[in-house]
Amino acid sequence: MSITTIDPKTALIVVDLQKGIANLPNVVPPMSQTVASAVVLVDAFRRHDLPIVFVNVAGAAPGRNEQPPRAFSMPDDWTELVPELDRQPHEHLVTKRTWGAFTGTDLEAYLRERGVTQVVLSGVATSIGVESTARQAHELGFNVTLAIDAMSDLSAQTHENSLLRTFPLLGETGTAQAICAALDRRHA
């Protein structure tokens, strides 16, 4: 479903657009496009004085899986947001250690304190951090909007699966421009 409305109290959540992930090769669509679209959203939310939450990931949740352990050390700037986002001191930062941004963080409390009823999501990876956060937001009763041109994945197949099959079940989808136009109409 395309975007029908933007709630008066909507927050932008930008997931894992950080230096350590932004430099990964072969993401689909290219990270430069995702970052550029995310910046369009950030600028619009700032213009309308709406909450912006930046999320970074600094580790992994405990537990076994079938993937071989990765033996690499994270560079010192791994968790730093990409500079294009130009995070301002008053904008909220959530550091997560799981796929979804709500688990083990203050994200829900931050949004509830501000009366937020809708979240717009962008970031990386479409099928992991963004989708997990969207699922959690939906389960918590937030209206969910997904900026489909402001997210990337490591796999074209998983990216497409999220966009075509999962996201329409969780909320509304649209481009950054369509979301910004809806914001402008709401706050005109």
From TrEMBL:
Residues 10-177 form the Isochorismatase-like domain. InterPro entries: Isochorismatase-like_dom (IPR000868), Isochorismatase-like_hydrls (IPR050272), Isochorismatase-like_sf (IPR036380). The keyword Magnesium does not apply. One of its GO terms (molecular function) is hydrolase activity. Keywords: Hydrolase. SUPFAM superfamilies: Isochorismatase-like hydrolases (SSF52499). This is Cysteine hydrolase. It comes from Paraburkholderia pallida.
